[in-house]
Design a protein that fits this description.
mainly alpha, 16 helices
Length: 383
């Protein structure tokens, strides 16, 4: 752990400087791309390094977000449901006092209720359902129309998962071809992200009394599907000639994403940990040291680190710890090279996000690797 801390501390500090430098120039107040996500990182940084000056900056920034709150934009990624979810997180983590009146919550709820209840498995609508679920739990004994509408929204999302698993998911024959032909990787990535988002919500809904038959049925279906995907993956990866350096980052992301999802709905065993570790090592040999400039590859490598960290938090394994350390070292040495060497634009503007899908997310992930304390990634549907 000390090795990881020593490696990451200067990088995290530089990310802090970058975010502070660009706060005023950022026109987005949202969670994923803007000031709300940046503020979460600053509070977590202050908690890790006990810096009062950073706390003051974070506190002033969250006051700004609240004072410029747009209740008409209900988006989880960039609007009110994501901001309120972040404020709830900051409040429950004792970073801030309760910041919103009940009236503002009610207005956000009303905007969500006006939307069509048909949902898909995109991260934005999964995020909104996650917000609705938190509101349901807050009013657990309530029998008002608003609470019934919350329940309807949650049931609709379980049904959307059911539909995906029974009729919309890719046929296994197509998935096998994707693995073996290295074709249509983007289609497979979307499939895996839908599975991951579904597992997160099923995990949380399963802890309530809402729609137990539908939730249990979907949990059983998703466990079966993940297991089948992992079987196909493990069969294919042994024939390593199928894989090439160009897609190694994507395949490592896919396998860690699937195991992380499996933990949420059932748990994993020692055999799973062994398969995960050996599969990643094989893929690393194919393309781990390849220099990648694509932004999507950087994102997938970052999420891979999140996934490995989450898995290790649930079931520690020394081999996987060494895998995580290699990925962190590679990430810092290559993708973060310009940041570490102070080659940062004076103003990020719209080019690079400072939210949890940008620099704040990188910083939060690295902070989480330094300590098991931060649990921010529940906001990204990752935990």
């Amino acid at each position: 752990m000390e090795e990881i801390k020593n490696l990451l501390a200067p990088v995290v500090s530089k990310i802090k400087d970058t975010i502070i430098l660009n706060l005023n120039g950022c026109n987005n107040n949202g969670l994923f791309w803007g000031k709300t996500g940046a503020t979460i990182f600053l509070f977590e940084f202050e908690n890790a390094f006990l810096n009062d000056k950073i706390f003051d900056i974070a506190n002033e920034n969250i006051k700004y977000v609240i004072s410029h709150f747009d209740k008409k934009n209900v988006s989880y990624v960039s609007g009110s449901s994501g901001i309120v979810s972040a404020l709830n997180f900051l409040n429950s983590s004792d970073f801030i006092a309760a910041s919103f009146s009940q009236e503002i919550y009610n207005k956000v709820d009303a905007m969500i209720f006006k939307q069509n209840t048909i949902v898909d498995l995109s991260i934005n609508l999964c995020g909104i359902t996650s917000y609705v679920l938190e509101r349901y739990k807050y009013f657990k004994s309530d029998t008002s129309l608003a609470q019934l509408l919350r329940i309807e929204r949650i049931i609709c999302h379980v049904d959307a998962v059911d539909t995906f698993l029974n009729s919309s998911a890719l046929p296994f024959s197509v998935i096998r071809d994707i693995f073996e032909l290295n074709a249509k990787i983007d289609v497979l990535l979307l499939e895996v992200q839908n599975i991951s988002n579904s597992a997160f919500l099923l995990n949380r809904i399963g802890k309530t009394t809402i729609y137990p038959t539908g939730t249990i049925r979907c949990q059983s279906l998703i466990i079966s599907r993940i297991r089948k995907l992992l079987d196909i993956f493990n069969e294919s990866i042994v024939k390593s000639s199928y894989f090439n350096a160009e897609h190694s980052s994507a395949f490592i992301f896919i396998i860690t994403e699937l195991y992380n999802a499996l933990i949420l709905v059932s748990g994993i065993n020692e055999s799973d940990l062994l398969n995960l570790s050996s599969s990643i090592v094989l893929l690393e040999n194919e393309g781990f040291n390849k220099n990648d400039d694509n932004h999507w590859i950087l994102n997938y490598k970052l999420i891979t680190i999140q996934n490995l960290n989450n898995i290790l938090a649930k079931c520690y394994n020394n081999s996987l710890h060494n895998v995580l350390l290699r990925h962190i070292q590679s990430f810092v040495a290559k993708e973060m090279n310009s940041l570490y060497n102070h080659e940062i634009p004076s103003n990020l503007g719209e080019k690079i996000s400072i939210g949890i899908m940008g620099y704040a997310g990188i910083g939060l992930t690295l902070l989480q690797c330094m300590s098991s304390e931060p649990n921010w990634n529940s906001l990204t549907l990752k935990h």
